[in-house]
Every structure is written in structure tokens, then in C-alpha cells.
Amino acid sequence: MSAAQADMSLKPSPPRRAVLRWARHRGTLIAIAAFLVCLGLIRLVSGSLNYYDISTIATGGATLATAAIGQTVVVLSGGFDLSAAAVISLVNVTLASHMQDDPSSILLWSCAGIAIGAAAGAFNGFFIAFLRLQPIVVTLATMFILQGVTLLVMDKPGGQLPAGFSAFFTADVIPDWLPGPVLMLVLLVLGWLLLKNTIFGKAIYAIGSDRDAARAAGLDTRLCEFFVYVLAGGLYGLAGVFISAQTGSGDPLVGNPMLLQMFAAVVVGGTLLGGGRGGPVGTIFGAYVLMMVVNILLVLNVPAFYSSVVEGTILILAVLGASITRTSVLASTLRLGGHRLSAWRQGRLPRQLTLPETRLRLPDEPARAARSQVARPSFWIRRQEDLRTVLPAFACFAIVLVVSQFVLGSTLLSWGYYNSLIVLASFLAILALGQGSVILTGGLDLSLPWTIAFCGIVSAGLMKGSDSAMLYALPLALGIGTFIGLMNGLGIVALGLSPIVMTLAMNGILQGFALVYSGGTPDGFSAPGLRWIMTGQVMGVTPIVPLVILFVLVATILLGRTAFGRRVYAIGNGMRAAELSGVPVGATLVKVYMLSGFCAALVGCLLAGFSGQASLGMGDDYLLPSIAVAVVGGTLITGGRGRYIGMIGGVLLLTALQTLLAGTTLPYATRAILYGVVVLCAVITLREKNT
């Protein structure tokens, strides 16, 4: 065979090349097809589809499409960015507060909005690329920091943007032919196509496919990853500029609903979570598909409260659809279920067989005696690592107590202060068990905020101020929380979904359920008995205080002295090694998320009892603190190391800091900034073990 023939034999045949091209662009083509179907449905239900309708659709989805392009770039590199929505809100309020009705001011602040986003991306990129911190934790901390800064700039909706600024971004470029948002997206696509063929563009895909291989090939992966977050931040900033032009005013919460939508648009557009496959073109169509699906539901008189339910469901289904293969977790789960069913029918399951009892043979008496004579290391040596990670939180807590004595007075020797401190810390102490257990396995539970809110709303709505109703309202609410955790666990274990994706989608679904259940206005009041537990006094002690102390003791034993706790640590140190060691990994993970859901539901009920009633968004303030107390208490964010008693140190520290801040003149928004900074500092301190 000649060299030319050999070269020809190595090339795939034309049908094979067609299949490869289809596989490479399958996600984008499916997103385009779904977009066309949605357009057809809009034409069907509305009776017309003229230029005005198309222009309205183009303007309505441009902000989400632009932000989702930035998220796509991050996901292609194997990352995850939870700070995107916060960047949009910060840019929006900054422009609404400073832009003047002058061409130079409009140009200056439009560029400044993009620069703000790029700066936030550089902040993320520095910690992720150069300090090798986890993208999820860094961007989550950045999200809270930016939310605090946003509230400092503008704490409520207001401001007004020039009409010329709005017209520049939203008006037609060619009247009745080309809407401005379409031109903006076309330019972004052209820019991406040019970037994709550069070394940087190819490096993005290489890093997302295999970071070690990319590094071995000579790519500067750290510098590339840094600029990925800078580029994404700039796109978030552009999205913030556009939504400012679209709304004409400022709103510190304007970007919050977009976080779930971004990831849904990325996945619907065919980009693979984990990196290496996909692109912004499919993402743009995915963003418009999401927007049009919600609009179609509104036309069909489906309440807007269901929008987040639809978006969360679409995210889960899209991730499932993109990952279904013969070797996927779902396929393996179905095959295993079929094998177990067949074995059960044939009576071949281990529990159906009568097998001889076998026991491990213990060493004989002389060997045991010899081993007992070997001197055991002292307690301090055996617990050296635990003490190194646990004690700093308690030491910092003591420092905060001293500072509080000087600032507030009457704290160090005041039982009233400690009683109030424990009451306020009770919520985080309970969440620390659930979220801490999830973190110990290497995951995160982002569904806590609306699990807390939904269960609190349900419990208060059923109690309606009745102690007798509390007897069934509390168990039902706790059961709902446990069921939510069960769904999270099954989605992660049986369907193979990422914990971040599954719990983020569940959080959106629960938000919709809470709005539907309450009609947008929660009613009902907590039972007097529950309120007494949270706010009453018996000889100067609030009843919840001894209950929290008992909870801490039980939780410490659960994670430190039981088989369940040992399995949690084993999974965090290596899931595959745990499986080979006989640990029931799947069942343990499901139980961990059920525990997290139970703890979140319990906090929801107690919060309703503390304030007397439940409210929408009552759990929003507890997501980052639930992670912060674990990290500050010495728990590795990647799992496998940490103690519950250390988490309690983190709980006391953050609660004391919160109490100290409440006694000063600092704005409320500084709390979110403080939590974000504390988390980053704690993770940086532990980075030697984390990388």
C-alpha cells in the first residue's frame, strides 16, 4: 500500500464525516429546531407573527442571550460562574445612579458597565486560575459580595436612564428590517467565530476537555482560565448595560432571576456541562427558546408563578438529554435495576439465599495481648489535624467577643447576650449539619433557600396560629423537606446529574411551588407554642437553647461516631475507593441530601416561629452562611475533612460578627460582603490541602 493510499485509509468515509459533523453540532441544531417550533407555536396561539412581534421577541431575550454567552465560555473551559446575575444587577444600578443625558456620559458609562463586569471576572479568575480555588465557592462568594455592593449603591428600585441610551440599544438599526438587539447578537457571534480560531479560543476547548492534557501540550492553562473569566465578566457587564437600556431604570434585584435561566439556556443550546463541547450560537437560540416557552404559557393563561418551575424542569431535562448514552449513569441505573429485578424473580438476591454465616477470625490471645502493650499515641497527637482546623474558628470567636465588649459593652459576662447569641445561631447550627454533610461528600446543596421558605410557608399556613395544628403541620413540613432532599439525592445518584445543577434547578422549582402555593402572598401564623419555644423565657433561658445544645451533641455523634458518618467521610475522600471498600455510596449520598432537606425544613419552621409568620425569600440569607460556617470551621470544600464541632465554631463566629455589625452604624448590605470575604479567606487558608 502506498503512502497516499495509507493516508486515505485513515480518513473517515463521507458518511462517517457527516455523522461526526452532526454529532459535533447536534446541540445547536436541536436548539435551532426548538426555536423554530416555538415561533410556530407563537404564530398559532397569537394568530399573527409580524415584524413588531419579532422585534419584541428579539429585545426581550437579548439580555439573557448575552449573559448566557458569557456563561457558555466559562462552562466550555470546565468552570461554573454563580456571580453572573449579581454582576448584571451591579452594572444596572451603577448606570442608573450615574449616567447623564449626554452622549459622552452615555458612552463613558456604557464602557464602564462592561469594565465593571470584566473587573468582577478578573477577581474570580485570579482566585480560580492562580490560587486554584473551586470555581463554585469563589463565584458564590463573589455573588454575595457584589450583591452587598449593589445594595450600597442603590438599596431599592429607582433612578432613570436617558431616552437616547435606551434607543441606541433597543431601536431598529434598519427600520422595519433589523432590530438593534439582533445586530448586537450577530456581532457577538462573529466575534466568537473569530476568537474560536485563535490559540486562546482553541485553548478554551482544550482546557474543558482535559486540563492536564492541555497543560502537557504546552498551553498556559492558568492564564487562559483567567482571561476566560474576564471575557465572561465583560459579557455579563454588556448584559447589564442592555437591560438598563431596556428597563430605563435601576433595580438591585434585576439580575437575580437570570441565574437559573442562564444555565438552562447553556444546556438547551447544546453546551456540555463539564466543558469541551458546545458554543454560544446554540446558547443564543436556547435563551430565546426559554423566553418563548414562558411567553407561550402566559398566552395560554398559565400563571407566571410557574415560570421558574418550567425553567428548572427544562434545565434537568436538557442535562439528562445531553448526557444519555449507553455508558451514562441513567443507563447504568436502568440496567442495574433490570438485573436486580430479574435476580429477585429468580430468588438469587443475597437476602433471598440461605448462605453459611462467615465471620472474620480475630487474632489469638497472645497476639491481642502483644498489640495491647503497644503504647497508643496521646490524644493531642491523634487529634492534631482536627485541632489545627477547628481551633482557629473558636479563637476568632473569642476575639470577636472581646471586640464586642469594647464596642457594645456588657457582653462577656452577660448571660442575656449568650442566650440571644445561641438563639440566633440555632438556625445556622441546624443547617451546618445538613450542608456540612453534603460538603463532606464533595457536593453543595443550592436548594436550601427555597426549601427553607417553602417548608416555612407550608407550616405557618397549616398552623394558622393553632397549637393543635402544630402536631401535624410540623411533621408534614419536615416530611416535605426530607422528600425534597430525596429528589435531590435520586437526581444526583440515579440520573447522574451534577449536585450543583440538580440543587440549583430544584431551588428554582421550589420557588415556583412556593409562589403557586401562597398565591404570591403567604398567609397564616405560627403556633403560639412554637413561638414560645423560639422567643419565650424560663428562668432567663429561651427554650430553644437547651434543644440546640442537645441537637449539637446528637449531630456530633452522628458524624463522628456512627457508620453513617464514617461513610460520609469515605465518600468525600474518594468515591471510587469507597465503592471498592464496600461502602453503599449511592444510598449514603441519598441519605445525606435527605438530611440536608430535613435540616432546611426544620429551619424554615423555626424561622416562622421566631418571626411569627413565614415570608417569601426568608431563606435567601442562609445559603452562603451555611457554606461559610463549614469552611470557616475547617471543612474542606472538596470534601473528606472537617468536624461538626468546628462548624459550630464557625456558627458562633459568624453569628457574633453579625451581632457586632448590627450594633454599629454599618449598612445591612455589609453583612453579605463580610460573608463573602470570610469564605474566600477561609478557603485560601486551606488551599494547600485543597489543591
Automatic annotation (TrEMBL):
InterPro entries, per database record: ABC_transp_permease (IPR001851)
Do the record's keywords include Hydrolase? Answer: no
Segments traversing the membrane: 27-45, 82-100, 106-129, 136-154, 174-195, 226-246, 258-275, 287-306, 312-336, 390-409, 415-434, 446-463, 469-493, 500-520, 540-564, 585-610, 622-639, 644-662, 668-686
Keyword entries, A-Z: Cell inner membrane, Cell membrane, Membrane, Transmembrane, Transmembrane helix, Transport
Chief localisation class = membrane
- Topology in the lipid bilayer: Multi-pass membrane protein
The record's subcellular locations are: Cell membrane
Q: Which Pfam families match?
A: BPD_transp_2 (PF02653)
Give the matching PANTHER family: ABC TRANSPORTER PERMEASE PROTEIN YPHD-RELATED, ABC TRANSPORTER PERMEASE PROTEIN YPHD-RELATED-RELATED
UniProt protein name = ABC transporter permease
